[in-house]
Amino acid sequence: MVNQCRLARFAVVIFIFSVAHVAVLAHQPFCEFADLTAAAPWQVPDPAVSYAYFGNVYPEWDIDYFAFDAQAEQSILLSLSIPANDENEAAIYAPQMAVIGPELPSDLPPELPSELQVPAGLGAKMVSLGDVPNYFYEPFGRVHFWNYEDDFFRAPQRGRYTVALWHPDRQIGRYAFVIGQREEWGGDLECFLAYSMYWTPLIEGANPYRDTPMAELMHDPSRIINLDAAEAPTVDLQVFALADGGYNLQLQTNNFIFTPQNIDMAPVRGEGHAHLYVDGVKLARLYGEWHHLSTLPPDAEALAVTLYANNHQAFAVNGEIISDSVRLSDLNSG
After folding, report:
1. Are 64 and 55 in contact (CB under 8 A)?
2. Rounded Cα gap, residues 71 and 60, in angstroms
């Protein structure tokens, strides 16, 4: 009986494996269960083989990295698809990609985000994806994609190259990155089983990574600017309840000025913008001292603000992000 149960479970897994394999059109699927970073990119086993990597741009400043070894003059397919869901019916999610490596142009593309550091001696070029993707229905898996144009990268010399992927407007979202053309059986079984989740929209404040804790995501040392306590800015959040049910928020700061005109530019100590959170979920960017909220969720418990530089790195002291919060229960009791 035990062997029969194991055999049944195995048959179900093989069935799911087979269906999912057909659904991704013979690409070997892998999923971003742990956030990809410059220090921990996805290591492409063989760029000639076709892999589909289902990933997330999350948080909004996230950059994902894919490293592969190429031969001189090897032509490598690079492609991007967006799982079609209710989130992107009106505005199709549009990340950008670049290749970094030896013998690529030393005049770096202006589209590169400021926090993407190209190592000395390497160059970079943008991956051409076209302007308007094509809508595609995959009948076996009964899913829809927006497919951008294929790009064929020709490696100028033998060496290691890296694809970086990000969203230029700091928007979170899901994607499928495809590299390579030769179809071979394989992929990650756990990704097969999680395949359907990539057709559900990302939610701000909800961690999409199974193997990377939220605290690690939000306190990534590469995403903060540590300052000495004596020179660091401070912020004090004041919340005023209004008769119509709304709220006025006042951010009282020291050693800090709001510079909306410099957004996405190089960081300058003591200038930038703020993020507003409701129970840990980002609600808005703030570009000045005052902000109005017409309403809040009925079960909301706390409001918080944090200070960010022009390039979206958080200001911190000893690794602790500079912030302030107000519990709504305290506000209502006052």
Report:
1. yes
2. 34
Any idea which fold 2-212 has? Jelly Rolls (2.60.120)
Helix, strand, coil percentages (3-state) for the chain, rounded to 5, are 15, 40, 45
**247 contacts 332 by C-beta, under 8 angstroms:** no
* Paired strand residues for 211: none
Judge whether 2-212 and 221-333 match in fold.
no
Per-residue pLDDT of the chain (334 residues), as tens digits, is: 444 443 333 333 444 444 444 444 468 999 999 999 998 999 999 999 999 999 999 988 899 999 999 999 999 999 999 998 765 555 789 999 999 999 999 999 999 988 887 999 999 999 999 988 888 877 756 788 899 999 999 999 999 999 999 999 889 999 999 999 999 989 999 998 888 888 888 888 789 999 988 777 766 666 788 899 999 999 999 999 999 989 999 999 999 999 999 987 888 999 999 999 888 778 889 999 999 999 888 888 899 999 999 888 889 898 788 999 999 887 765 5
| C-alpha torsion sign, points 154, 157, 158, 162 | negative
Q: Where are the alpha helices (DSSP H) in the chain?
A: 2-23, 189-193, 214-218, 328-333
Tell me how far apart the alpha carbons of residues 282 and 284 are, in angstroms, rounded to a whole number: 6
Delimit the domains of the chain by residue range: 2-212, 221-333
Beta-bridge partner residues of 73: none
CA dihedral (20, 23, 26, 28) positive or negative: negative
Using DSSP bridges, classify how beta strands 247-254 and 257-258 pair: parallel, antiparallel or unpaired: unpaired
Q: What CATH class does 221-333 carry?
A: mainly beta
The helix/strand/coil state of 328 is helix
